[in-house]
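User: I'm curious what two different proteins look like when written out as structure tokens. Can you demonstrate?

Assistant: Sure. I'll show them one after the other, since each token string lines up with its own sequence. Here's the first protein:
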Amino acid sequence: FFPPQVLLLACAEDLECVPGFQQKVFYIEQPFEFTEDQPVLNLKFDDCKGNKKLNFEVSNPDFKVERDGYLVALKNVSEAGRALFVHARSEHAEDTAEILIVEANEKRGALKEIFKTEGNLGIPRQKRAILATPILIPENQRPPFPRSVGKVISSEGAEGAKFRLSGKGVDQDPRGIFRINEITGDVSVTRALDREAIANYELEVEVTDISGKTIDGPVRLDISVIDQNDNRPMFKEGPYVGHVMEGSPTGTTVMRMTAFDADDSSTDNALLRYNILKQTPTKPSPNMFYIDPEKGDIVTVVSPVLLDRETMETPKYELVIEAKDMGGLDVGLTGTATATILIDDKNDHPPEFTKKEFQATVKEGVTGVIVNLTVGDRDDPATGAWRAVYTIINGNPGQSFEIHTNPQTNEGMLSVVKPLDYEISAFHTLLIKVENEDPLIPDIAYGPSSTATVQITVEDVNEGPVFHPNPMTVTKQENIPIGSVVLTVNATDPDTLQHQTIRYSVYKDPAGWLEINPTNGTIGTTAILDRESPYVHNNIYTALFLAIDSGNPPATGTGTLHITLEDVNDNVPSLYPTLAKVCDDAKDLGVVVLGASDKDLHPNTDPFKFELSKQSGPEKMWRITKLNNTHAQVILLQNLKKANYNIPISVTDSGKPPLTNNTELKLQVCSCKKSKMDCSATDALHISMTLILLSLFSLFCKSPP
């Protein structure tokens, strides 16, 4: 990148001595190895004043520069990086040279770069009066400041000619970093530089006359900041957590650790090497893992047998990883981070029952968990390699048993889901197997310990008698004679081996109509059965009976009896309303519409027959007219005086034989003025005309059959 100063001599052969390295950039071909004490190349430094107290510093501690300027290796070096920097200082000058280490093909390309045109080098093809060679300045220099870092030379000898420097770092932000002596051309820096902030400055230098007019230039002046190793490697991507399956082959990659160094990546200042400082725990081996020093890949180095999660002290390892720059040399800066490596479980241990046979006892007729089957599994409890799955493989033809896994304990909870019957079978034997949710690895199989037998003993319990059928149904007419037999119930005792007797009793008889023979179970009536009773719903009367065995203590069974009651014509029809009011001057002589109802069922109800009983007096005052099957109208034949009248009416249903109800309709004739009815003289209750009219309207809407 920086042209060798020797190539500029053709353009400045008549110029005075320039302090510093006579060549700023060197290219050397990468050898197989730099041999100890063998000269590599000659670096010519001249401060133009005898080089008093001249000292050299090399960026790579494996090299040094002799007093005569020769660069030599302090030991055999096979890898020196891509570049070396040599800093020289005497009483009167200091300068830096760069040595680029390239492959053979890179060297040819690099030489071409040296001879590029003016646009790249800032150096004209034709001879110019200004010579501005590139300047290299190490970062982080210590005071005093300002300090001279280079010099611009001009062959322009005009009287009053001055140098002028401009650009970023001079008259542009950050301002005031560089200055130039306008008479001598000495370039100085005013403070320490930071390469990580700004690595290169491109300035322009020109020569002006006494009036400030440019007489030569501008010419580009390149200033490059030489990297110093002032940044430690940093791990920025944490936390670092890796996983590796137990039993993995030696050399399995677990994870990669990568650090960052802000120094120049083309120098050893950012050339990182990785190392494991500490492993916790140290068993079964203190060196369970290895880290690739260049890539940062962490790999396993122990045999698969040692990488056994079940035999480890803990399945978690913590590694303290160090990243060191300068290629890992002692002079390098370091940074550390912790890598956590988890040994993941694989299903290499089948679950095993803690014993070959389990015992359980259960009472007949009871459901629920009867025994917990325990297993052991050395795999990770947080994985499907540990979680157990149980299966009943024999002895459960009636599906009376089920088994489920307790998620907390991993035990198998064996339950009775269909009640067992002692009289059918007093013993049951189940064969149960256990597996894991995850499949076993190929070279592991389930063994005999993964199956177990459960012996179940059923205990006899005094069971209550059972009615057959239940519920029991029978149909009877209402009003059958008291003492009639309704039904003889049948109940049996499931405990056939106990030879017990059964007695019967009434449990619930809401209307008190029934009784039962305690010995033979015959149910008879103790009262008239009434279908119209409020205890009858949808024509059905329900009663409950008990069957009690002779056990100690006795057991009870409950039977339900549904009696469907058939209707008989045992209810006379009723008439409504029984009171009517009419105005003494009414023009409409229709007094009231009468309706009839019957508690019985059809055909013992409508159509109803409405009739007037014999009327007293010489003249008939009213008549009755049928409107439909359930309604009739009473009509006045003449206006009546204000008074109370009783109209005898009979209504007959259609039953066989029919039933008749004789009743009286009370008629109040009232005075009516201004739409107000006054019935006070008749001692009658006041009923609004509106209510009567609404009743008439609704009843007239019914049509005859």
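Here's a second, unrelated protein for contrast:
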Amino acid sequence: MISSREYGSYSWELLVTVDHQHEEVQKEFLLQVTGDLHIGGLMLKLVEQIKIPQDWSDYAFWWEQKKCWLLKTHWTLDKCGVQADAKLFFTTQHKMLRLRLPNMKTVRLKVSFSSVVFKAVSDICKILNIRRSEELSLLKQSEDALKKKKKKDKNSKEPVTEDILNLCDSPVSSGLSGGPGLYSKTMTPTYDPLSGTPASSTITWFSDSPLTEQNCNILAFSHPNCSPETLAEMYQPRTLADKAKLNAGWLDSSRSLMEQGILEDDQLLLRFKYYTFFDLNPKYDAVRINQIYEQARWAILLEEIDCTEEEMLIFAALQAYHVSKLSLSSETQDFTCESEVDEVEAALSNLEVTLEGGNTSNILEDITDIPKLADNLRLVRPRKLSLKTIKPYWFVFKDTSVSYFKNKESAQGEPIEKLNLKGCEVVPDVNVAAKKFGIKLLIPVADGMNEVYLRCENENQYARWMAACVLASKGKTMADSSYHPEVHKILSFLKMKNWTMSPQAVSDPESIDMNPECFVSLRYTKKYKSKQLAARILEAHQNVSQMPLVEAKLRFIQAWQSLPEFGLSYYIVRFKGSKKDDVLGVSYNRLIRIDIATGDPITTWRFSNMKQWNVNWEIRQVAIEFDQNVSIAFTCLSADCKIIHEYIGGYIFLSTRSKDQNETLDEELFHKLTGGQE
């Protein structure tokens, strides 16, 4: 036995604040502890002193000064570094969070504030029935957007009441382990590919899901657009610098919400961060497809991504079609037992499609024969001090290079010039109405980018050459299995653009219940009158009017993916040795240095040529080494360098995914590539 005097020399008092709802019970407790007491023992000691009979299993210690959770219950206070001056907060790990989804709907649900964000997003996606959670993350709204919202609320005469979908009864959000979710591949499809309606039988199978049939409709169907006045009040980036601000708020995937200053009932944005939508399947991805469609739609309406007038009208036509389809949804949706697909039959049908291999003769042909293109095209070279020079040449496309000759007869000799397209930027330069089919090539050279334009004669020629250029830029040849689907995709997009005036379709735009200003960005509502816009949207609508609902959404997503700026996230950086700021565009396969004043690309670096990258955390500098002794270093000015580091590692991680794998992710590899050592 030791005396009380000796005991006092080894022990000390620790102040712990308990987060509970019992007003009659005190919240602050002084505990007599020693350094060798482990965290689990401290919990037991505290609960015994509180004397409130309740479930404490979701509670853990939050160390306010250090901004960290004490989750390793076998660690001692000495090992954690906890001393008498520490202030510990005993609180729940799962708390309420408001999430603004891509479709601008807000959901309220319980989320783990102690798990790293990567795991928290995975749990959120299980609740919302979104597969491939690794493509999404949480984003803090930009300060400019918040300022505009506050100004709008201030000017509003009526108090703003937000329509919030409450999903707090979810088993996953209550801290329990979630079931397989609605998207399990062994179950019946959640999406009818023909009518585009969620299959109600699936809802009843998963009774533990918070997504009732009504809630599933809210997330899986697009809803009527907001008014032009509401659109005008929303934040719209005007410059590249404004677009860079949109990407500054991504949360660190390797740290918890609480560690990043997020409080209970705060609002965050749930967004697709990585633009590589893997294994998109209408049978299982009702909510996922709709949310991708909505993110694309709002990016176009708010001009977060640039598009031509012709493209804007196509997007508007697809949106208008959705609205007209939805207005009849009560008649077309049939949730009766008669329309439901037998679960076992559906699972077997999908298995048959999954196991069905490609044509073996085609595979053999891909291996043994590399196709080439040869045709008459016109070459356009911009001159700085004179007009463009446009000359016809005989072009030959083989492997990943384009060579051109004076004429077809001289093709056996040496070419005038050979252009290696590996690593180049390929930008469409098309106006279907004006019969202009151009391909803009920005080819990396030692001092920047060499700009070359190819002009094609017609749609078919353009589709073949454009697809070849796109694949060559990624280091692939026309023998690759993705060549023919790429040609088909380009042709289908051109077909949507190629509409003709139909007197019947546009004779009376007012007869159609459509507010055209809801479907285009503000730039076009200022340029055209309402009747003119309605007529032009209805013209474009003729080419898409027969599409099923799901196909129209997928076409919209494909058209979005075809835009030159698709998938680029912008950051303002200062390159080592440079005296001015530049913009860095981060995409799924490359980095682009862009002139901040003109918006012109200066240099492109492909991830496929990257040897290694690292971060100097002391000076917050990212350094990257590429093949051929090319190295770059930059500091990020518009955001923390950890965000760019995570983007690069995240895209490399996503490139390792395979359809042969099951849907479980190597979380350890993700954190190894994105976490960093701060």
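A detail about the second structure: The two ends are 46 Å apart (CA to CA).
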